[in-house]
Design goal:
2 copies of one chain form a homodimer.
Chain A lengths: L18 H14 L8 E2 L1 H8 L3 H14 L2 E4 L3 E4 L4 H22 L5 H17 L5 H16 L5 H15 L10 H19 L4 H23 L8
Chain A binds a DNA duplex through helix 3.
Chain lengths: 234, 234
DNA sequence: GCAATAGTCTTCGTATACGATTTCGTACTC
DNA sequence: GAGTACGAAATCGTATACGAAGACTATTGC
């Protein structure tokens, strides 16, 4: 469940991967990597055949993905990959801003110098990436960066919520930055500021607020771009 | 999914509740109302027979409940009602403090005078309830009170997280207040303070912080109590 | 008497089968 | 020509069946 950062296709899964697990992992991977794009119709029998299993485990997998918000399910009709309705995007980003902010703040005291160095190096890569801008790569680095910051969060529930949020966003691979490339520049700077706060062991409140604002600023940039209309407070 | 407040056994479910839904609702109800207490072993075949369905829909229901955190599932072993490990309690309360705080803050601008009046009346009942203290009733009123405050939250994701948190806590029906009755008094006062903030349209930040602290104070009281010495087992 | 092992029994995991529901296409009528 | 009704195909929902994994128990050996 925590292949969030590396996005590697979980290889081992230990000794026993139940068919259910396999199906879950496979479908999830295909959604995250974009093979199944939003709106794609997930036909149970088809997937079952592809994976060489029966429909029962596939059903279970789909239901789990539904609970995670990656899949939309309609009774007697079928499952489709959850789209990213602009509204949905807003909700997800707002939720993520809150839980990720909290996770980062809780994680901060446990972040060592080595982690900070690692994060800084990722951020340097991002800065480099700004030249010949590649939204997909930038987005992945962005996730790597933030993972370092919140992954030490001692509360597994919150951490799980953060992962779910990121996963949901993973559907749109190019992320917001494709639409608002300018935001990418600001983002890199804010990352450095965030690292400074962590290094200096700033107050948890301060870190939380900074992390939250960092995310909602991205959301606001997107909203401002997509429609010059309604401007919601955060 | 939002029968949180009333706790009534959702009767509607419209025309046809799929067996899966039935099973989900039935098991969830039994967990929430305490028929299945933490640690209770959920045997698929048994439940299926009780409900007059086959095991397949029951499996699905259990998996959904697992995703919600109400049930713990172990491969090839079975499902049990998720206990409330003190650690787990801590995690859940902390998570709830964050998401409920946010939900309340987001909800605040949409809370009308009628809602405030309703909340105040519930709080009055709680104050009354302090005389001949009944932890179970107090806890239910407490949930009613907070429901009024966060239920207008415009972000359905956050609202859902709040509901899940409350549901998880519903397992321990008597709640913290049984252990720390003194906290109940403070709680009622803080409720009134919270209402004042909402009435005067205080800053979202202020409301959020107040709501969050209100909950973490309960958690702290619990922790202080359980650390101080052996809490009286019953 | 204790420990280890073998056998049984419970319970889960998944495949297959069939009934139910929806959707789509076609033909018929106005 | 457009709309409606009927029917067929596709797909989901659930039951039943069987194989597999873990847990419990009894027996045997030390």
């Amino acid at each position: 469940m925590n292949d969030t950062a590396t996005s590697a296709a979980t290889p081992a899964a230990a000794h026993t991967a139940s068919k259910s697990e396999q199906a879950y992992a496979a479908v999830k991977a295909r959604i995250v990597d974009g093979s199944y794009s939003p709106g794609y119709r997930l036909v149970l029998a088809k997937i079952a055949e592809d994976l060489g299993v029966s429909v029962v485990p596939v059903r279970e997998a789909i239901r789990r993905l539904e609970a995670e918000g990656l899949v939309k399910f309609e009774r007697n009709v079928g499952a489709t990959v959850a789209g990213i309705d602009p509204t949905e995007y807003l909700y997800t980003m707002q939720t993520l801003s809150i839980v990720e902010g909290a996770a980062t703040a809780l994680s901060a005291p446990l972040i060592g110098p080595a982690d900070v160095a690692r994060a800084r190096s990722v951020n340097a890569e991002m800065r480099e990436c700004l030249e010949h801008f590649d939204p997909v790569r930038f987005t992945r680095l962005n996730q790597d960066f933030h993972s370092i910051l919140f992954e030490h969060c001692p509360n597994p529930h919150i951490l799980d919520l953060v992962h779910r949020g990121w996963n949901r966003l993973a559907s749109l691979r190019s992320s917001t930055f494709r639409f608002v490339p300018r935001r990418a520049h600001e983002s890199v700077d804010e990352h450095e500021a965030l690292l400074r706060l962590i290094e200096t062991a700033a107050d948890a409140d301060v870190i939380e607020k900074a992390a939250r604002l960092h995310r909602s600023a991205t959301l606001d940039a997107y909203l401002a771009q997509s429609n010059a209309g309604s401007h919601s407070a955060h």
